[in-house]
Design goal:
The structure holds two protein chains of two kinds.
Chain A lengths: L7 E11 L3 E11 L3 E5 L6 H9 L6 E6 L3 E2 L4 H6 L1 E4 L11 H11 L4 H14 L15 H13 L5 E5 L7 H16 L3 E5 L3 H7 L2 E6 L2 E6 L1 H8 L6 H13 L1
Parallel strand pairs in A: 3-8, 3-9, 6-7, 7-8
Antiparallel strand pairs in A: 1-2, 1-4, 4-5, 9-10
Helix pairs in contact in A: 3-4, 3-5, 8-9
Chain B lengths: L2 H25 L6 H23 L11 H31 L4 H6 L4 H35 L5 H60 L11 H6 L9 H6 L3 H34 L19 H14 L2 H12 L2 H13 L7 H22 L4 H5 L5 H30 L1 H24 L12 H4 L1 H22 L6 H17 L4
Helix pairs in contact in B: 1-5, 2-5, 3-5, 3-6, 5-6, 5-9, 6-9, 6-11, 6-12, 10-15, 11-13, 12-15, 13-15, 13-16, 13-18, 15-16, 16-18, 18-19
Chain lengths: 251, 507
């Protein structure tokens, strides 16, 4: 999968952010177009901080972020945001709007053509099982439904790079499957997905490549087989491999 | 632990929670601010004593057995204060029903829910009474200092008022639960609480306008007609006023009846309090479908942001009621305007500061909702729109709402007094801009549902907002009166804004 000829969707170089201690420490990350990349790490490893800096929600102390190969996200955040979407673990939507209105709002923010945005919204409602609830206010929705509305909002403007921070937290099996299917569909259509998750089975099944981050640094990266080789063990699952990598780093 | 020990332990627990709530309110949740808050409270207390001195010093020698006119004014003032206490108590009772922080723990504990809620009701009564006594303290202390220790009896009368307010609040809220159900009680109770708090003041003002052509709420209380028609000075109706004035017998009677009423309401309703709290905890949002007649429409990012703000406000009756309750206070000036228009009197100049003050206060609330109360901050921040445009759209949303509310009043004023209308328009504009600037300087990320706690996040912003509105209202009033003295409140307002900008936290 690691082919230098493939277009680069995201290039992070020497990225650092310090709060009371270093959260992200000189991180380098390269993610290719059409790739499903899973970023794993223990709590407090710097995953969310990294993704928030990429999404433009947090200003890094140093380093560079290049989106789509050419857009300097720090120098031209508006152009970078035009091709990106962000979904966090806590669905942030407007309770008094309906999913239809929420997506219309998002389409307006991204300056989309109304006809194509509405067509796309209807498709997403269908895929995510939201169609029967499209005109109901979100205030009565469960967390899973809200997360699906947030995801539909992230996808309605057809982003090239989708950044998801623990998107499956709190979702039931059915909803999680719908979300995973939509993400797979995006990758098949040429989009790039970066996702953090603590559900290692999801990363194992869906990710083309996996990055393991600890102490704000990338400690391992590659396909599952490559990670296994890196640990030098006969670990069979990603969970075993991940735990071995993190334990080695801690030691 | 035996039963009485349990009750005492619970009361101690509630007292501790109440104390921590109060400290948190004073320090905006930061323990490091305790010293600052203490100094600020001492300064505030001194200022309040000075204000009280200027207001009540001349009444210090009012007799224990006063004339009817004094009894009418004291009783009217007590009723006015009591309506505010009742409003505060209803708000506390409603919050006790709907705040789930420890409700699950209480209801699943092996204690009797009836006893737990009885203690909670006592806590509500105690907190309402404590606030009332704190607010009344400067006035009572000044009166006692210059008129003798008999005035300390007023503390007892205030405590009695707090007890009766808490008892009535429990009865009214339980009655609402029984008549309209748990789902609607939260909104209705809070509106009723706000209306009760405002109704008496507004009612007196309307009465003053209609009868005396003035906005002073004391004018009706001092009217010859009311004094002539009031019961004789020996009537039992004046017992609360007599208690305030230091009549020991009246105080014992009033306090006894008040605390008996509180006890009866607690004993009668503690059981149903628990049942209704359970009902309130089980309330879920009903599905609300929005009619949709057309598809997506082309709108600029700024327009969608403005539209979003207005829709969210219009669809949230609770928020709308909290925000627009301030507009209730515009009712008396609106009536005054109507009378001025009908009778062609020049009283319209009085309206100028009222309009400017109300606009400043309302704009502060709306600006907080729009700028800080963003429920999807990540979405807006990751949109391909510059933060300058986002802020501009939010400010436009505030200005649009203010324009919609105040334009009809200013236009109406323009028909009677064009110059006053022009000054009002300029004042409303400047007061709105100032309140919005203050909210911009102190913006924080918060949920819209935290609207009522917005004052605790920054005391400086709250005071700056209030003093800026007052200063601009003063400026507008003096400009309308045609005096160059208007420059002084304007300079104060500008100094407040400069100070706010200088000390605002780095955004």
């Amino acid at each position: 999968m690691n082919e230098p000829s493939r277009p680069i969707a995201l290039a992070v170089r020497n990225l650092s952010k310090r709060f009371d201690r270093p959260a992200v420490d000189a991180l380098d990350l390269t993610i290719y177009g059409g790739e499903f990349y899973s970023l794993l790490g223990p709590n407090g490893a710097g995953k969310t901080t990294t993704l928030r800096m990429v999404a433009g929600l947090l200003r890094p102390d140093s380093g560079s972020i290049l989106v789509n190969g050419t857009i300097d996200a720090l120098a031209d955040p508006v152009s970078a945001k035009q091709v990106m979407a962000w979904v966090s673990d806590e669905p942030m939507i407007y309770e008094k709007l309906t999913p239809f209105e929420y997506l219309e709002f998002v389409a307006g923010l991204w300056g989309m053509d109304p006809a194509s945005a509405e067509k796309r919204a209807q498709e997403l409602f269908g895929w995510l099982g939201l169609a029967p609830h499209a005109h109901e206010r979100c205030e009565s929705f469960s967390k899973g439904m809200r997360q699906k509305v947030a995801l539909a909002g992230a996808l309605v403007h057809d982003p090239k790079l989708i950044i998801l921070d623990e998107p499956l937290t709190g979702l039931d099996a059915g909803s999680a499957r719908q979300v995973k299917n939509v993400l797979r569909e995006r990758v098949r259509a040429g989009g790039t997905v970066i996702m953090t998750t603590h559900i290692l089975e999801v990363a194992e099944r869906m990710a083309d490549r996996i990055g393991v981050i600890a102490g704000g640094r990338l400690i391992a990266e590659g396909t599952l087989d490559e990670l296994r080789r890196q640990t030098g063990t006969t670990a069979t699952t990603l969970e075993d491999t991940f735990l071995t990598l993190v334990a080695e780093q801690a030691a | 632990m035996n039963h009485s020990a349990t009750l005492i332990w619970l009361a101690g627990h509630e007292l501790r929670l109440g104390w921590r709530d109060w400290v948190s309110l004073m320090t905006a949740g930061r323990r490091t601010r305790i010293r600052t808050a203490t100094v600020a409270l001492i300064v505030f207390a001194l200022v309040m004593h000075f204000i009280a001195y200027t207001m009540v010093f001349r009444y210090a020698n009012a007799g224990v057995y006063p004339d009817k006119a004094t009894l009418v004014v004291v009783s009217g003032t007590m009723l006015l204060s009591w309506s505010l206490l009742l409003s505060q108590a209803m708000e506390s009772v409603t919050r006790a029903f709907y705040t789930r922080s420890d409700l699950d723990l209480i209801l699943t504990s092996p204690f009797s829910a009836r006893k737990v809620f009885a203690v909670r009701m006592v806590r509500i009564a105690a907190s309402v009474t404590a606030i009332a006594m704190l607010l009344a303290a400067p006035f009572i202390n000044v009166l006692a200092l210059f008129g003798g220790i008999r005035w300390f009896a007023a503390y007892g009368a205030v405590a009695a008022m707090g007890a009766v307010a808490a008892a009535f609040a429990v009865v009214l809220t339980i009655a609402l639960f029984r008549t309209i159900g748990a789902k609607r009680t939260r909104l209705i109770a809070q509106i009723v609480a706000a209306v009760i708090g405002a109704a008496f003041v507004i009612g007196l003002q309307i009465c003053a306008i209609v009868s005396f052509g003035t906005l002073s709420r004391f004018a009706p209380l001092q009217s010859e007609w009311l004094i002539a028609h009031a019961p004789e000075a020996s009537n039992a109706l004046w017992l609360p006023a007599r208690a305030v004035l230091g009549d020991g017998g009246a105080l014992v009677l009033v306090a006894g009846i008040s605390f008996a009423l509180l006890c009866i309401s607690i004993l009668t309703f503690a059981g149903s309090f628990g049942e209704h709290a359970i009902a309130a905890a089980g309330v879920s949002n009903t599905v609300v479908r929005q009619a949709r007649w057309q598809g997506f429409r082309r709108r600029s990012p700024q327009r969608v942001l403005r539209r979003k703000e207005w829709i969210l406000l219009l669809r949230d009756p609770w928020l709308m009621s909290q925000t627009l309750m301030q507009v209730l206070y515009l009712l008396p000036p609106a009536i005054m305007l109507w009378r001025g228009f009908r009778e062609g009197i020049g009283a319209s100049v009085v309206l100028v500061p009222v309009l400017v003050m109300a606009a400043g206060q309302l704009a502060g609330g709306l600006a907080w909702l729009s700028i800080s109360g963003e429920d999807a901050p990540d979405l807006v921040s990751t949109a391909p729109v510059t933060s300058r445009r986002i802020i501009a759209a939010k400010i436009e949303a505030v200005a649009g709402a203010i324009g919609l509310i105040f334009a009809p009043l200013i236009l109406g004023l323009g028909l009677v007094a064009p110059a006053a209308a022009l000054i009002s328009a300029a004042g409303v504009l400047v007061a709105t801009a100032s309140a919005t600037l203050i909210q911009l300087c102190f913006r924080v990320q918060a949920r819209r549902s935290h609207f009522r706690r917005r004052q605790t996040s920054s005391r400086i912003a709250t005071f700056a907002e209030a003093f800026s509105s007052i200063s601009w209202a003063g400026t507008a009033a003096l400009v309308a009166a045609g005096t160059w003295l208007a420059i002084f409140p304007a300079v104060i307002a500008i100094a407040i804004l400069a100070g706010v900008r200088a000390i605002s936290p780095r955004q």
